[in-house]
Specification:
By secondary structure, the protein is an alpha/beta fold. Strand 1, helix 9 and strand 2 form a beta-alpha-beta unit. Helices cover 50% and strands 8% of the residues. A five-stranded parallel β-sheet has the order 2-1-3-4-5, with helices on one face. It starts with 28 loop residues before the first helix and ends with a helix.
């Protein structure tokens, strides 16, 4: 039987996504492999294996453990240790992720294949900014900034797909005298969630709702305040969250479709830029002076 593709549904809800499909450390094989080659020494066994799997990603299901071990100069036990080091149980577990190739091919190529891409992108981004401004007003940003300012600790939880925006926000917040931690499917200590006290804040970034599903078990023991930033309106039904920031409205009767748009690529960056502006304005000396001048 073919492994069920956990992306092959339209996100009317979470019921049809198997609970075993996702976890914080077992979210995307592609993410895990790129993390290895971006961090490991180029001549290390980890890097060699990661590159091999990426170069053969399109045909993972055809790979044979003996052939891979031979071409990468390792043993079956070495292969197993590598698989476990990136969050997968064994070689077969990696092969079962072959659905990611076709899914991501559609996800990335459909976004960029437009006859007049330059104008399409410009107009789409302008529309995105207007929509996010409409969906999240300044008062909501101010409330979130206030919660963040008073929190004993702040942890941003995102997949590696969305981590660029949160890493930028992390660096910006240092100059606002607020230390922010990041937890992704490839970095950070998930134990931070279970040890957080009631004054802590967790912000989960999950455009499609998939990553929110992946971290559900980890959040179940978290005592801090939990906030979700998403494009999927059905994610609002997830009981783990105290507040949900929906960045785009879905027409009544329509379901959210997982596809790459300017919202998934730029929406999170825009959201955190607006949040950072309000944090500086409210809680930093220069920002306070700027607000007084504006009045």
């Amino acid at each position: 039987m073919d492994k069920q593709d956990p992306y092959a549904q339209t996100f009317d809800g979470y019921e049809d996504v198997p609970s075993s499909s996702f976890s914080l450390r077992h979210f995307s094989l592609m993410n895990s492999l790129f993390t290895v080659i971006n961090r490991a020494r180029a001549d290390s066994l980890e890097s060699v294996l990661a590159r091999y799997f990426l170069q053969h990603f399109e045909h993972l299901e055809r790979l044979n453990v003996y052939d891979v071990a031979g071409e990468c100069y390792t043993s079956r036990s070495g292969m197993r240790r590598f698989c476990q080091s990136i969050g997968f149980d064994n070689f077969s577990d990696i092969k079962d992720s072959n659905y990611e190739w076709s899914h991501h091919w559609d996800y990335f190529s459909d976004y960029a294949l437009h006859a007049d891409y330059r104008n399409h992108l410009a107009s789409s981004m302008a529309g995105m900014c207007e929509e996010i401004n409409r969906m999240v007003d300044q008062d909501r940003f101010d409330r979130l900034a206030d919660i963040m300012h008073g929190a004993s600790e702040v942890v941003l939880v995102a997949s590696d797909f969305s981590s660029m925006a949160v890493h930028d926000f992390q660096q910006c917040m240092l100059y606002a005298h607020k230390l922010v931690d990041i937890l992704t499917d490839s970095q950070g200590d998930e134990a931070r969630l279970s040890t957080m006290d009631e004054q802590g804040l967790v912000v989960v970034i999950s455009a499609t709702g998939n990553f929110a599903r992946a971290v559900a078990n980890d959040l179940s023991t978290c005592r801090g305040r939990k906030v979700l930033v998403t494009l999927n309106p059905n994610a609002e039904s997830v009981s783990h969250y105290d507040d949900v920031f929906l960045l785009k409205e879905i027409e009544p009767g329509q379901s959210y479709r997982r596809r790459r748009t300017v919202f998934t690529k730029y929406g999170v960056n825009y959201f955190f830029d607006l949040l950072y502006n309000r944090y500086l304005t409210l809680f930093c000396d220069d920002g306070g002076d700027a607000e007084e001048d504006a009045r």
